[in-house]
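Progress report, Aim 2. The chain analyzed during this reporting quarter is listed below.
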Amino acid sequence: DLRTVPSAIGGSVKQRHGIILAKSGPAKKMGISTGQTIFEALSKCPNLLLVPPDYALYIQCSNALMSLLQEYTPMVERYSVDECFMDVTGYGMNREDCLETAVVIKERIRNELGFTVNIGISENKLLAKMASEFEKPNKIHTLFPEEIPDKMWPLPVCDMFMVGIRTCLKLYKHGIITIGQLAHTDKELLRVYFKSYGNVLGDYANGIDYSEVRTDRQDIKGVGNSTTTSFDVTDYETAKLFLLSLSEMVGMRLRMENQKARVICVFLRNNQFSAWSHQHKIPAPTNATNDIYEEACRLFSEMWKGQPIRALGVRAGCLSDGNFTQLSIVDQNKADKISELDKSVDFI
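Predicted structure tokens for the chain:
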């Protein structure tokens, strides 16, 4: 059982490159964290059991989870491949009802889908997310506003959502060690230290979040995947590892939907919460991982000026039927070989 030994998912196991996408509890105790390079992880834990990602299985499980949750409310947002937000506002449920429903959902997921989940319950997405990160696995936690002083404020500030290692170290430098200390720091000082990001930090530390649960759209107009990093990405090689992982997921999802894309877009957000994106229309529609990755790297190189990156995304748009693409004979032969290779990787 991978959950009982130091293990991790990610990268190329044979070539030992790439990044850690997920890790077991024992691996976490050895200092392994999501987003680390395989090289760094192995240097911390030489006996780390590495397993390649199975994107097809991830999507299958993610879709099954979405379907199950939508039996309780149509207001379900897929936050990532393994995280969702549910909004049960308007269903006449009090806190006790929510807790009872969470117990039923947790057990159904384990019995019907075969995996465990942590569930966080609160009045907004931020606090529900923080609650879900409490003790694992297979637990249910609440974090209501009146519980913040006891449950959230004593936590290390690095445990707060959207606080990476560099932000954490900067907070430590100013004597802010816990979330509670951050919550009670004057916002003017936070703006001096972190500019506009200081407002976000202050609000989050006090449990303030006004974002709404956004439901998935049924019409497929594009396919995208994004990730928020656990640390500031400051070099091109590390960014390329994330872009490759994202491109693999986008390519596989296109192939599963039998779609090809004519437009590739890359999205970035820095550690000051500023975001920007570039997109480009490519000569011929594609769902090949390598095509998407090469274009993503090119777009990234065009717009990145060295700012610390905290989130990256790759999106494919302007979709068309995957069965029809006009290519020359030479290009068609090459495309067929690449297609077979991608299908083999998807199967593996």
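The chain has three domains: 2-51, 55-148, 222-347. Residues 324-333, 344-348 have pLDDT under 50 and may be disordered. These observations will guide the mutagenesis work planned for the next reporting period.
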